[in-house]
Structures are given as C-alpha cells and as structure tokens.
Amino acid sequence: MSQSPKQSAGRSVPTSADVARLAGVSRATVSYVLNNTAAVRISEPTRRRVREAAEELGYVPHAAARSLRAGHSRMVLMPTAHVPIGPLYSGFLNELQWALRRLDYTVVQYAGVGLEADEAARAWAELRPVAVVSLGRAGLTPSGVELLKRAGARAVITVGPQQIAGTHALVMDQTTVGRAAGAHLVERGCRAVGVVMPEEPGLEMFSVPRLDGVRAAAERAGATVVPLPLRYEEEPADRLAARWRELGLDGVFAYNDEYAMLLMRALQDAGIAIPEETAVVGSDDLVLGRLLRPRLSTVHIDMVRGQELAELVDRAVRDPEAAPERRELLASRIVRRESS
Amino acid sequence: MSQSPKQSAGRSVPTSADVARLAGVSRATVSYVLNNTAAVRISEPTRRRVREAAEELGYVPHAAARSLRAGHSRMVLMPTAHVPIGPLYSGFLNELQWALRRLDYTVVQYAGVGLEADEAARAWAELRPVAVVSLGRAGLTPSGVELLKRAGARAVITVGPQQIAGTHALVMDQTTVGRAAGAHLVERGCRAVGVVMPEEPGLEMFSVPRLDGVRAAAERAGATVVPLPLRYEEEPADRLAARWRELGLDGVFAYNDEYAMLLMRALQDAGIAIPEETAVVGSDDLVLGRLLRPRLSTVHIDMVRGQELAELVDRAVRDPEAAPERRELLASRIVRRESS
Question: Does the beta-carbon distance from B64 to A64 stay under 8 Å?
Fold first, then answer.
C-alpha cells in the first residue's frame, strides 16, 4: 500500500499543472475555468483554450482535492441497506437520485455490509459527504451521527420508522399500514386475525410496527391477533396452511402482496375458501395483486416523493444550524378487492 | 461555493495534527497508526495513545487526503443502472459487496442519472476509484474507459452482454437464455413462438439478445418467431390476449417469470388453455413461478458468484498491465413444470 503507482498502463495521470502549461495560463485560471467559478472574469478564448487543453490531455479534476480545498463536497451519501429492495422503494430511490442531480449534488451509495454501526459511520465519514441520507435502518446511531457531523456533514437525514438524535427525520410510521389493514378486517367481521411476520432478516423494522398497528385496530374491536412467522418459500407456507383450521383464523394481514400471494396459494391448495373462510389483505398495491384470483385486497402506501426529500436535503445543507425537522410521511388507505 | 465552512454546529473538524498534539507524537506516527501501516514499527502503548486521542477528538482520516497521498484509493466504484432491479440481481450485488469488503475495498455505487455517457465517466473519475465495475449497461463507452484509466483507475470491469475495449469483461450472453427457452418450446412441438419484449426502458440489453436466442433455436427447427411488445400492466396484457387466436401462436417465451405471470393471467381470462393451446415459459426461476397454476416452466440462470467477481477485481487492481480477460458467465437450463 505504500508504493504510489500514479502510473496506469505506462502513462502518468495528467494534473492541472499540465493543463496550465499546455494552455499557457496559470493553474488558478485552470481551476476557475474547469470549476465554472462565475465570480472570476475570464475571456471566452482563454476558457476555450483551457477546456481544449484539458480534453487533449484527458484531465479530470479530482473531487477529493476540490473538497479538501472547499472544506466540503457536493456528495450526498446514502448508506445502502441490507434489506431486499422492492419495486415501491426502487422507484422512489430513482426519483430521489434524479432530483438531487438536478440540484447539482452527487449521489453516492455506500454499502455498510460487514461493518458494525460506528465502524460504518466512520467509513462514511472518510468520504467527507456534505449530507447523509439514511433510508430504512442502515445502522445509524446517535454517536454515528455525531461523528459524521464532526467530519463535516452539514445534514443527516433519516427516512424510516424512528428519529435519531441530531437528525432531520422523515418518519414513515409503519403502524398506519397495519392499522388500515386491521380496521378493514374487523369491519368485514373478522374476529381472529393472523399477521404474517417474514423471517427474512432486516424486515422487522417494517413487520413489527405493522403488527402493532393491526393489534391497535383489531383489539379495540375485541378481535384477537396471532403473529404468524413465515419464510418466503413454498414449504413453510404449505405447513402453515395445513394447520390453518386449528388456528381458527378468519382473517389475515399478509405483510405485503408478495407474501399474500404465497399464503393465498397455500391456503387455496389446502381447500380454504378466500374470502369466505378467511379474508386476506396484502400491502404495497403491486401489480401482481390484481393478477391473483380472487383479486387481492391491499394497503396502498403513499411514499414520500423523491423531489420533496431532495429539497429537504438542500435546505438542510444550506442551513446546518436549523433545528431538526420531523415529518410524518406515510399515508395508507385500504384498496378493497375480492380477497376480503 | 467559495466560502469554506469547515464548521459544523460551531465545532471545527478535528485534524490529524490535533490528534498528534494530544497524543504527544508526530503527525507521521498518527498516520502510520491509523492507517495500520505494518511496515513501520511502533510500540503498542504509542499505538494505544494515538487511538485514544483520535477517539477522544472524534477524528476520522480523510479518505480523499489519503488517496491523494497514496495516488490511489481502495474505492471500487459501481455505476448504478437505471434498470429495474430484480431479486436475482440484488442477491448477487449483496454478495459482491460482502466479498469486496472482505478484501478491504470500499464499495461505492454512483448514480449516473441525468448524465451523458462521457459526462458520467468524468463524474466517476473525479472520485478517483481504483477500480470500476460496471454492471449491465450503465453507459460506459471506450472513451469513458480511457478517461477513467487516465484518472488512475487500475481496472475497469464490465459485467454484461458486451465487452468494451480496454476492459476485463464477464460476458453474460443473454442469447443462451432465449436459446434454452426456444429449444424447449420447439421440442414440445411449438411451430409459432411469441417472444414478449418489455416496453419498459433499459431492458433491451436483455430482451433483444434473448429474442435472438429464441430465433436461433426455433428457426433452425422451422418454427416462426413473433416479437410481442408489452408493458407490465394489466390492460395491455388483456389487449394482447384478446387478439391471441388471430396471432396463431402455440408457444410463448415471456421474457421473465413476472411477465409470464402477467401474460398467463390474461390468457387464462381470455379462455386460452395453458399449456394445451399455448405453452408458456418464463425466465429467472423465481419463487412466484412455482405459485402459479399451472406451475410455470422457466429458464434457470446460473449467475456469476459475487466472490468470483471480487477476486477478479483484486487481481486486476494488483496487475493493471494484464491483458483484458474475457469470460463467458451465463449457464442456462430449462426447468420444465406444467405450463409447457
């Protein structure tokens, strides 16, 4: 690691000094032109000469050097979660990246796999991001936030179930999803409601508050609630369906539409009539729910818009002293189809 | 952008000089200890003093400064594609990130949204990655590769349908997927084979070679092949199903399992018997295919292992002068179930 091979394929990496020499200008002029500094007046022919020299040499400014000089970067770092990413979430992520790009930020996703929480925060801090947007869990702690701010992050924004000290928070309260499903099931007359709890790691941050939401809605109406751990595979679903009548459930909230598809198939194969014997509700309103027979009832979730989040990032970067904002972001409503 | 606010919440960002002062050692010693330089002998008590001082001050080394000194970073940059990410791909991505992490690389994903090809390469180059791993398309061109190498990237590796000059390539030949599906369908007696072509942008790099593969297999056996453009929505699928008998198709390769589910539902609603009237084959061997009735035949794809790709990255970084490697990586086999 201590050799410094600035060579790649036998050529040296061109520097701004090389550009300055070829264009016959100072290094400062090169920097002004290539960083589009509007404050300094430089003639168009000089600008052109610098750009042509840079192109001829294949020179690219070094973001790191620039951020060292400026004290901060335009990099928004997004720790990537371990969570399996669904279609709802990936659409949102795409929109967010576009919106930040239009505001001239560079979006970088960083995998924290294999790192403990504070170790991960340290690795993120090393890149000196101007802002950190943490989606879902992704292992951010109060001391991690502190560390990032010391390393120059002007804003830390969490989008997820909880707020962490020192951050702006877009709180997505998953209990509202469960509450919408639970209220619908008891309204349809269910007295014993099962709630699918995926066994895949990383989903508890969604499944536990969703269960709480179902409980809040169902128990108020005097119905009982039974958690049903399940892996996303055929066999465990068949085993669950085989003991369904023992469980005595007349309704089930299946965590999401994909689990609902898995469970509905197993129940139908076991001869359980849907919705007559058991009503089934999914969540996320995916296309596949409309393709099932009976058509799947589901909870439609209005996600935060990427544009809105991008604007919050920009505001927070411009005013790092602002008091932490907290906004509730999840609106849920039931979409009733044939399965309930 | 020309103010240099090194302050965040009123505190200054601690530097290695602050750590050196508090620990009573030189800055060089701080650097050796915190970067785990094995070549230099430093006593355990001194190491401990430096670490404690760094922790007390909340000091984090600046990856940028380190890479400026070393001439390269440990950053592997992965341009993120615009493509909707399926479960097959996200599992692979997760494994790759773990494997690179174990080899002490930092994995950073960079969204190229809103940038033209060479603009994107320039933005990536600014981060001075030691290696670039481009999955799928992601807009890399020969001049982009050239630019990245001039900026110090020691290896550029593409994983996708084509090789680009100057890169190591793990070529995933999607025609093998179509060929496996096409061969199976003609073997089942199909004489007129439809091939679903998703209309969502970004999928052509998979769908076009898959179509070519079906063609190669089917036309050799004297069967005809008809491309069927389709959006992943109920209505267009219903419209396609409504004119199915006019098309006179007795078999269809549905691009993947999700499109197969969409099309099968529409065909069944239109009274087309599967597989008697039309055989259906998907791809990717997802769980959902086993949940359909009839159970879906599919093409199982053996993806490159993340560990294998991580090792190639490491070899390429250590030996940037090595001749570009090219390896074929896609093994496909038909999984016959009830739909064909």
Answer: yes
B9 pLDDT more than 50: no
DSSP string across B196-260: EEE-STT-HHHHHHHHHHHHHHHHHTT-EEEEEEE-SSHHHHHHHHHTHHHHT-SEEE-SSHHHH
CB contact under 8 A, A152 and B113: no
Q: How many residues does chain B have?
A: 340
Interface of B with A in 22-81 (CB under 8 A): 35, 37, 39, 58, 60-72, 80
Average pLDDT, chain B: 85
The verdict on residue A19 lying in a domain is: yes
The residue segments making up the domain with residue A17 are 13-61
At residue B112 the predicted structure's pLDDT band, cuts being 50, 70 and 90, is low
DSSP secondary structure, B163-213, as one string:
--TTSEEEE--THHHHHHHHHHHHHTT-SEEEEEEE-STT-HHHHHHHHHH
B189 interfaces chain A, CB cutoff of 8 Å: no
A236, β-bridge pairs: none
B308 and B168: one domain? yes
The DSSP 8-state label assigned to residue A322 in this structure reads S
A91 and A153 share a domain? yes
By C-alpha distance, the chain A residue nearest B146 is A58
- Which of B5, B111, B288 minimises the CB distance to A97? B111
Structure tokens at B272: 């087309």
Cα–Cα distance between B53 and B15 in angstroms, integer? 11
Q: Nearest CB to B321: which of A9, A65, A108?
A: A9
Residue at B165 is within a domain: yes
Domain CATH number, residue B193: 3.40.50.2300
Residues A157, A239 within the same domain? no
Looking at the complex, does the CB of residue A104 fall below 8 Å from at least one CB of chain B? no
In a domain, B334, yes or no: no
Same domain, yes or no, for A191 and A296? yes
Are residues B193 and B161 part of one domain? no
Give the Cα separation of A121 and A137 in Å (integer): 13
Q: Are residues A132 and A112 in the same domain?
A: yes
**Number of domains chain A contains:** 3
Inform me whether the C-beta atom of residue A143 falls under 8 Å from chain B C-beta atoms. Answer: no
Give the pLDDT score at A1. 34
Interface of A with B in 309-328 (CB under 8 A): 320-321
Would the CB atoms of B153 and A58 count as touching at under 8 Å?
no
Report whether A260 contacts A293 (CB < 8 A).
Answer: no
pLDDT tens per residue across span A304-332: 788 888 999 999 999 888 888 887 777 89
Give the best residue of A35, A59, A62 to mutate against chain B (max B CB count within 10 A): A62
Residues A196, A114 share a domain: no
Point out the residue among B80, B109, B151 whose CB comes nearest to the CB of A13.
B151
Beta strand A331-335 with B7-8 is unpaired
Contact criterion met (CB below 8 Å) for B228 and B244: no
Task: Decide if B132 is inside a domain.
Answer: yes
Which residues in chain B are contacts of A98 at CB distance < 8 A? Answer: 113-114
- Contact in structure between A100 and A310 (CB atoms under 8 Å): yes
Cβ–Cβ pairs < 8 A, chains A and B: 194
- A270 and A308 belong to one structural domain: no
pLDDT-based confidence at B226, cuts 50/70/90?
A: very high
Shortest Cα distance, chain B CAs vs residue A13, angstroms: 5
